[in-house]
Write a structure and sequence with these properties.
The complex is a heterodimer. Chain A is mainly α. Chain A has one domain. Chain A has 8 helices and no strands. The longest helix of chain A has about 35 residues. Chain B is an all-alpha fold. Chain B has one domain. In chain B, helix 8 runs antiparallel to helix 9. The two termini of chain B are about 25 Å apart. Classes of the chains: A mainly alpha, B mainly alpha. The interface between A and B is medium-sized, with 27 and 26 residues.
Chain lengths: ~240, ~260
């Protein structure tokens, strides 16, 4: 088996055209799945017997929270690949991930707060998951801040790559220490829902939303990646050929 | 001071050229020279700090002032202050060690010492380890020794003080190591202090959590071994990984 297909991925002109070709293959299924999942979740699924219609925000909240972690992992893997094999395109992928991940994290926090107001009686509760999510947002902001502070692209790539790898080692530690902290401090006033058997009519839309959000992330990533490659290679000659073609 | 630098430079150059020009040295001598270089770097940092004392004094003064903010802003009643004392002591220690990170690499980056370290052929990881160790001796340990004073001013009973000293001493090892990565990554960034805080604080939160917990248990007289062991685990993890990451970050910054 040859590895040429893999090595070609490291070539900016190839990845630029490949990303352009692949984008609709992710964007359309993502759109269809999200629309279908929202229809299933907001209209077809029955109201929860405890939370009423309030639980429906889970269809946006849970996929956002899931994506916030998955995007960080993707970013750290891309950064590690870029650091180890010195592949510029991998750094471009990592750089494109960060704002998307920060947006998903922000969305998860906002939807969590909106859910908390009717359910817990407060917008913000120092719940371990909310707190971990907030820390994750700071990790994204730190990554983007470091990248913005370094003007030289290569240096920004490698420095922020080290930060992403250090961060991914720390994410589990932070998560468990926050969980531990919370279990010591928080009086059990918050309504704790035992994990009920989730009905299929509620679960299927949720899975559709999860898959839809994942595909949506890939589509957005491909679009951002093209922008990133364009701005990095702005002085390269192949850009002129691609743009004039 | 220049003599110190020359001596280190000499020793670095000697140990650098020795294995490459002659027959390869055995593992024992290479090991010894690495440790020797680290020892010299550590001694140099300590000597410089004792000649220019602001590095020693400023974080301690900052710690005292942060502690003073809380009685003034919350309440002068010792019973209420005692409740918030763990948080005050640890938030203050965290902020003071963050402030002290400025001293870790800044001067060495300005005068080219870091470049010499990177070019010396010695293990940059070990040199980073030595610099971080010096930094902990110069800021972490004094902060730990200062913590009882801050604690007493917040109404902490005297029996709790040994536990507080141990927890701050162990926790600040982890803080120095985590901070060394952030400080190395932001080398050469103008007005880097806000960025440094943004990079370092999220990674330091486990230390804050376990440290404050140990302090709380020390004040209430509970068994505080478990959180201190967790702090020690964080410190050990930092000892194994942080110098590697800091060395990589310094190399990137010097490119």
């Amino acid at each position: 088996m040859t590895w040429t297909w893999f090595h070609r991925l490291a070539s900016p002109p190839y990845i630029y055209t490949l990303a352009a070709r692949l984008t609709p293959w992710f964007a359309w299924p993502a759109g269809l799945l999200i629309v279908a999942g929202l229809w299933g979740g907001l209209v077809l699924a029955p109201p929860d017997y405890q939370q009423g219609d309030g639980f429906r925000i889970i269809y946006v909240h849970a996929p956002s929270a899931w994506m916030s972690l998955m995007v960080y992992t993707t970013m750290a893997i891309a950064a590690a690949v870029g650091l180890i094999w010195r592949i510029k395109v991998a750094h471009a992928v990592a750089a494109s991930c960060a704002p998307i991940g920060a947006s998903f994290t922000f969305a998860a926090l906002v939807t969590g707060a909106l859910w908390g107001q009717p359910m817990w009686g407060t917008y913000w509760e120092w719940d371990p998951r909310l707190t971990s999510e907030l820390i994750l947002l700071f990790l994204y902001l730190g990554y983007m801040g470091l990248r913005a502070a370094l003007e030289d692209t290569q240096r920004a790539d490698r420095a922020s790559g080290v930060l992403a790898v250090v961060g991914v080692v720390n994410v589990p530690i932070i998560h468990y220490s926050v969980t531990w902290w919370n279990s010591l401090h928080q009086a059990p006033t918050v309504m704790r829902l035992a994990k009920p058997e989730i009905a299929a009519s509620m679960l299927v839309p949720l899975l559709m939303m999860l898959l839809g959000f994942t595909l949506f992330f890939v589509a957005i990533l491909l679009v951002r990646l093209r922008g990133e490659v364009l701005s990095r290679e702005r002085s390269a000659s192949w850009i002129r050929e691609v743009v004039s073609a | 001071m220049s003599r110190v630098v020359t001596r280190i430079a000499d020793s670095l150059v000697q140990t650098d050229t020795a294995p490459s020009t002659q027959t390869p040295a055995g593992p024992d001598t290479a090991q010894a020279s690495v440790l020797e270089a680290a020892r010299l770097a550590l001694a140099r940092d300590l000597r410089l700090a004792f000649r220019k004392r602001d590095q020693l004094v400023q974080p301690l003064a900052f710690y005292a002032m942060v502690t003073m903010l809380f009685p003034l802003s919350i309440s002068p009643e010792l019973s209420r202050l005692r409740e918030v004392a763990p948080g005050v002591l640890w938030a203050g220690a965290l902020l003071a060690s963050l402030l002290a990170l400025e001293f870790l690499f800044r001067d060495d980056a300005y005068d080219g010492t870091l470049e010499q370290y990177a070019l010396s052929g010695q293990s940059l990881t070990w040199l980073m380890f030595a610099k971080t160790a010096a930094h902990w001796l110069l800021t972490g340990l004094p902060l730990a020794l200062m913590a009882p004073l801050a604690g007493l001013s917040l109404g902490v009973p005297a029996a709790a003080l040994p536990g507080i000293v141990v927890s701050v001493a162990v926790g600040s090892i982890a803080l120095s190591l985590i901070g060394s990565i952030g400080a190395a990554l932001t080398l050469g960034v103008k007005r880097s202090s806000a960025l440094l805080a943004l990079l370092t604080l999220p990674l330091s939160l486990p230390v804050l959590i376990f440290g404050a917990r140990a302090t709380q248990l020390a004040i209430s007289g509970g068994p505080l071994l478990a959180p201190i062991e967790l702090l020690a685990a964080l410190a050990v993890l930092g000892l194994t990984l942080a110098p590697l990451a800091a060395a990589a970050a310094v190399r990137i910054s010097l490119e």
